[in-house]
Amino acid sequence: MAALSCTRWLTRALVTAPNPRAWRSLCTSAVAHAAPRNQAEDVPVEGAFPVTMLPGDGVGPELMHAVKEVFKAASVPVEFQEHYLSEVQNMASEEKLEQVLSSMKENKVAIIGKIHTPMEYKGELASYDMRLRRKLDLFANVVHVKSLPGYMTRHNNLDLVIIREQTEGEYSSLEHESARGVIECLKIVTRTKSQRIAKFAFDYATKKGRDKVTAVHKANIMKLGDGLFLQCCEEVAELYPKIKFETMIIDNCCMQLVQNPYQFDVLVMPNLYGNIIDNLAAGLVGGAGVVPGESYSAEYAVFEMGARHPFAQAVGRNIANPTAMLLSASNMLRHLNLEYHSNMIADAVKKVIKVGKVRTPDMGGYATCRDFTEAVIDALSHP
């Protein structure tokens, strides 16, 4: 488990570095000293890597079943510890939340489905999903929007990354009725968290060899709140002279993504804007079923779908697309330094899509979730 421990130490160090220069120095040092790995090193001496699994609502359990089937076929050295947390199925409580948190804190890595949030107000403004992310301080949500070879959409050959701050902003759960028929909702923006997500975005761009970061905001209207976020991004940008920095107002960003998404590389933004933009961008390459996502804190990593939808209308119909969840699972394996298994699964998924014979309804085909999963398993044995 030495490699995993090293990875966790590095993540913690990067996020909590005392200043931006130390942050960048740690990143450069880690890349420079990374030793090549042998495929045989994928299996830790102690046994399988423990990973918390939270199937969630909607088609989540079906997608997790696909992940488990593919992992089994690929002999992936991961042991899933399953927990269930659902507000819509009356499977949510403080006790269950603490059990999930305990598991995630111990394992440091999790793969989760969408925990659906009911519309009705039942006395608690913060959903269990929001509380889970806050308690683990999962401040950075990363959605890599990339076209899949062989699957044609309106815009092809796209490759952009959306980085979203997801612990404050409009999703602070601070609402009250100040007078009868008048609701006030508070948007919280802090310098500390704005700087942190900006550093994360520039560090990500540096590590991944990307050229540009675009800060998305509405500072022309929300002059203090979004103004502070924009100011923090500008300050951090000065520490990364090799990375081009641009700013864009959120409404213009939406239009530009539809008209010319190729102009973007890495986009960083506050909570609500990120929630909207990652869904919009996912639609450019095929929808919620094909885009993976992940969330990070200083200590923990959570892997999930990039566009979080329960797809409740598909429950039990065996038509859900497991692509996004399988690619997220592949990214999780890479995070665990299981490069061989990660590449094996990602390559198998992309091969099935490129061949085009087995596609779920959302991709214009007639295959079931099970059909797609079996095709991926077959591709594992016939690379």
Write the layout of secondary structure elements.
Blueprint: H1 2-16, H2 20-33, E1 49-54, H3 60-73, E2 78-82, H4 94-107, E3 109-112, H5 128-135, E4 140-146, E5 159-165, E6 175-179, E7 182-185, H6 191-207, E8 212-217, H7 225-237, E9 244-249, H8 250-259, E10 266-269, H9 271-284, E11 292-296, E12 301-305, H10 323-335, H11 339-355, H12 369-381
Parallel strand pairs: 1-2, 1-3, 3-12, 5-10, 8-9, 8-10
Antiparallel strand pairs: 4-5, 4-11, 6-7, 11-12
Helix pairs in contact: 1-2, 3-12, 6-7, 8-9, 10-11, 11-12
Organism: Rhinolophus ferrumequinum
Protein name: Isocitrate dehydrogenase [NAD] subunit, mitochondrial
Subcellular location: Mitochondrion
Poorly predicted tracts of residues? 1-45
Q: Assign the CATH architecture of the largest domain.
A: 3-Layer(aba) Sandwich
Q: What structural class should be given to the helix and strand makeup?
A: alpha/beta
Termini Cα gap = 29 Å
Strand content: 15-25%
Strand order, main sheet: write it out: 2-1-3-12-11-4-5-10-8-9
- Counting H and I runs of at least 4 residues, what is the number of helices? 12
Q: What's the CATH topology name of the largest domain? A: Isopropylmalate Dehydrogenase
- Total count of domains: 2
Helix fraction by DSSP (H/I, runs of at least 4): 40-55%
- Report the radius of gyration as a whole number of Å: 20 Å
What is the CATH class of the largest domain? Alpha Beta
